[in-house]
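Reviewer 2 asked us to include a model.

Predict the structure of this chain.
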Amino acid sequence: MKFSRAIVRLPGHSLIDGLSSAGLGLPDYDTALVQHAKYVEALKYCGLDVTTLPPDENYPDSTFIEDVALLTSRCAVITNPGAPTRNGEAENIGTALENFYSDIEKIRPPGTLEAGDLLAVENHYYVGLSERTNEEGARQLIEILNRYGMTGSIIKLKNVLHLKTGTAYLGNNNMVVCGEFVTHPEFLKFSRIEIDEDESYAANCIRINEYVIVPLGFPKTAEKIRGAGYQVIETDVSEFRKLDGGLSCLSLRF
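Predicted model (structure tokens):
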């Protein structure tokens, strides 16, 4: 899929109160702002027109905008995040999406779904069942996808927060995999780029047009992706890592 646009949300001062299990300490707000700006520069370098939304101080994790919506070539789906502190966050994305989509669907309670659990492979979407995404949320999404001529299937997660914590699809049948996904039967049909456990954070990389953006500081991963024939852009997201966030979390790309 060729991407032309992205939506991001600036981090608010409340960022330091975001959810975290990383054990890496509190993020530095000023450094996070600098890193976010450089991330946006990388998106633009890849050819995207970037819409930047203002901070939402009511939701510390709101800069991880990917979780609140799925943007496909045929419709947008507003999710229902499973983390209690993110309840209501998805409602704030609707107005922004109306500028780009006429068909906007919603995941409704008791379904929960965060788009970090959604891995797109062309017109098929893998849906990870996690602490944040439940079976009802997955069922609703697959039903929506089917109505628009797309498909979906479920992958049960064991150890990771989100499906895209340990996977990334780079196109051309190339799948980045790490940890529990290295030998997962569903991914054996792909040409797999296996990420070492000591660089597992870098499995969350993003393919945008001719480039793959990789977090800075993971040289083995960057080299493997270059070796697979991709142009690599490295950008520092260390402050967002402290909040369990990765590269894909910080934007909606469409």
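The mean pLDDT is 97. The longest strand covers residues 124-129. We have added this to the supplementary material.
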